Amino acid sequence: MRLFENKKECFGCGACANICPKNAIFMRPDEQGFLYPKINEELCVNCNLCKMSCQIQNENEVKNDGAVKCYGFKNEDIIRMKSSSGGAYTAISDKILFQGGACYGSVFTDSNDVIFQKARTKCERDLFLGSKYVQSDIRNSYFDIGVELKNQERVLFTGTPCQVAGLKQFLKAKKISMEHLITIDLLCHGVPSPKLWKDYIRFLEKKNRGKVMGYSFRDKEHGWSGYHIKVEYDNGLVECDSREDLIFTSLFSMDLILRPTCYKCPYSCKERCGDITIGDYWGIHQVDQDFADEKGISLIIVNNKKGNQVMKDVLDNPLYTWKEYPYNYVSQPNLTYPTLKNLVTDLFWMQYRKKGFLWIVQKYSGYNNSFINRMERSIVFRIHSWRNKRREK
């Protein structure tokens, strides 16, 4: 049994592992730290369910026709300050929880892995808040959601487009109704390596002699725009935007550390696979200066009738501030095309494998490196930025 011809086709969604009736498929990390399915041939009975649940070559089957509505959204300020943008996810998930439903989203574990988890309460749900620029591990979430949907329970699933697509292909293969399922796909730039993320966390802990207890990619103490990193340690140290803090986002912003599939992502388009799409409303200051502020604005794109009904119920709440905008007022690159692969990405991974984390950090992130390395990084960054701008035109 072969699940794909080329591993670069695989999204790592885990649908195949979730559907296997013999538990013959295991998700294992490769040398870059990304999960791929491995089949235990001794347990495999060739039932073909894994192929039926796979989204490779079936991506268009789960896409909607296009946007129905588009909103700029603000939750209450206290919620927005805990969120990466305008608190849209909290508003939608509050509605599902109030109706007795379950929410699935990604969390940081105590060991700073990023995994999917279920929430039945607001306290559990709040662990999902905030951006996590690492590919998350689905684990058994698809299987558990299937059980709940069979029991006629309401479920909200929020993840990257490929994770939403994986769930829908899994449910189709299992012939489970999606009537009570609401899906939110995130406006995704691409998912960074979990292995490199853990190397980075170990680097921080060694440097600061403490365990990382809290990490925020988008702290808003200095405003909403850009990356503002805040790291809290068990020794009482709190750092914000130090040179060490910015290492990971520096590599991320150069598009060096993404899963290979991200560079040709079929979901970087206007035909989304979620009922609702949410993200940062970048460019809102040019669209509507009166509505814009530095506390964060969510972009909400409604993709079908189900999503439209959910948002009608949410927007009735007088605590929220929102405006509807024409879809062509949205300027998100990943609604048009995938993230562009950096010209030195393959070299980066080869050097990471051979020379280790600290070496590539010094060469590519601008941390503690020589004048020559800083010049090399500047040239690489400028060329990559120029290629991106040229494509946008």
Question: Can you put this structure into words, describing what you see?
Answer:
The chain is globular, with a radius of gyration of 21 Å. The longest helix has 22 residues, at 371-392. The chain has helices at 15-19, 49-53, 77-80, 88-98, 122-125, 141-150, 161-174, 194-208, 247-253, 284-287, 305-315, 345-355, 357-364, 371-392, and strands at residues 25-29, 35-39, 69-74, 102-108, 114-119, 155-159, 181-186, 212-216, 230-233, 238-240, 276-280, 298-302, 321-324. The strands form three sheets. Strands 5-4-6-7-11-12-3-13 form an eight-stranded mixed β-sheet, with helices on both faces. It has 393 residues and is α+β, with helices and mostly antiparallel strands. The protein is built from 14 helices and 13 strands. α7 links the parallel β6 and β7 (181-186).
Topology:
Elements: H1 15-19, E1 25-29, E2 35-39, H2 49-53, E3 69-74, H3 77-80, H4 88-98, E4 102-108, E5 114-119, H5 122-125, H6 141-150, E6 155-159, H7 161-174, E7 181-186, H8 194-208, E8 212-216, E9 230-233, E10 238-240, H9 247-253, E11 276-280, H10 284-287, E12 298-302, H11 305-315, E13 321-324, H12 345-355, H13 357-364, H14 371-392
Parallel strand pairs: 4-6, 6-7, 7-11
Antiparallel strand pairs: 1-2, 3-12, 3-13, 4-5, 8-9, 9-10, 11-12
